[in-house]
Amino acid sequence: MITLLIKRILVIQFVLFSILYSQGTNSFNFLQMSIGSRAQGMGNAFTAIPADINSIYFNPANIALAMRPNIMFFHGQMYEQIAVENLTAVYPRFHNLTLSFALSYLHLPEIEKYDIDPLSSEPLAAGKFQVYDFVPQIGIGYNINPDFSIGLQIKYLQERIDDITASGVAFDFGALYQIPIDYLTIGASIQNLGPKISFEKAKEHLPLTYRLGMAYQLSAYMVTFAFDGVKTLGEEWQFYPGLEVELMNSLSLRAGYQFQNDIGPGYHVGLGFKFLDNYAINYVYSPYGILGSTHKAEFNFSFKKETAKAESYRSTVPEKKYNPSEIITAETRNISYFLPVPTGLTVSKIEDQLILTWDKIDVPDPQYYVYVELEGKAKVVRITKEPVTENKYTFNPTVDEIHLRFFVSFVKDNKESELSRPLEVKYKK
User: Fold this and answer.
1) What are the residues facing 154 on neighbouring strands?
2) Listed residues 264, 279, 302: the one ending a domain
3) Domain boundary among 280, 302, 324
4) What span, in angstroms and rounded, lies between the C-alpha atoms of 335 and 346?
5) Distance CA 231, CA 213 (A)
6) In the chain, at which end, N or C, are there fewer CB atoms within 10 A of the end residue's CB?
7) 397-428, pLDDT tens digit by residue?
8) What is the pLDDT of residue 263?
9) Are 57 and 89 members of one domain?
10) Structure confidence by residue, pLDDT tens digits, 90-130
């Protein structure tokens, strides 16, 4: 009986600690512990940040804009020897869907439990027990059109405290909209939607959470502003502003703040470093007053997807021989999400030529790449081997009838912006 009593006291202490950390009043408060150092460096204002792998923990729709397969390894070291480990993977352009998969694991060192000797009243070691949370999840993101994306995630939940285990299922839904104002996105998501969880004989709610966010990129200055409003079941609204500044296309400085924070000063600071095109390291520091400080870091690796077939490429460009090694697809681009995106694409026909034009980006000596999506191929390939220096491109069809979508990107220091909104062109000689 005494062993059971001590176990219950430890359980209560752990649950209280979880509530303190997440400010929650529900079960599985681990779900409110954010994953991803870039997002936490921006104060968890990430509901409207597109494409980043961290996004699946804030809005599953955001990954629909991802261009490359990506893997993230995340480690969070908290106080009292609590740690979070995470593996996340994103695979875009799978039959027009973006797929995600993740494993998250919160754990503590094994905890000693004791019994009391009925004769001497001295404590007797009675072994150890474990405390952990484990959450595997899968998700999809889909672009309904170039401006609007949706996403869904399914999560299996398991929490264990000694020999007491609770499990359940939860769902996340999200949407992301790129409104006509350039570089401004808004997002919304519902997280942890699911039935009550049975913990022994008690049934408890999941931490159902509503998120609204907006993000604005000052592309010319490589700065991103973000702001989120978050409402969790049984709690007040929380507001998170965040800021990211990128320097030299490799170093990022981040800061965020949590209003109505009951633990610590409420600020987060982080930095990131990109190198060798495919790699990134992100770190965040967060103080929590008397509980101590937390340190969290992630390592990201992105892959270049296979290039398009040369036959598809040659079918839409002027007569010229191309080797497969010369074919460049949209997935292989070296993207910076802070560069300005070309706008105002139009096309005119002069004899048998199509003249593609767009608004000039107001910087010295701007350069652009032109891309085309092949009808029925779901492949976007680049049709300018070298950057063009004018906001105009002449396209010479080699067939009598075509139906294509054109895109343009801005180029600076071997980095490219996101693709412009598509211009659909139907042509017949």
Assistant:
1) 138, 171
2) 302
3) 302
4) 24
5) 12
6) N
7) 877 777 788 999 999 888 898 888 888 887 77
8) 63
9) yes
10) 998 787 899 999 999 988 877 777 677 777 777 777 677 67
Q: What is the pLDDT of residue 161?
A: 77
**Which residue has tokens 């990107």?**
409
* Domain tally, the chain: 2
Q: Which tokens go with 151?
A: 């996403």
Q: Which of 244-253, 318-327, 342-351, 359-368 has the lowest mean pLDDT?
A: 318-327
Q: Which tokens hold the place of 192? A: 């942890």
pTM of the model as a whole: 0.68
Residue whose structure tokens are 């000052």 = 218
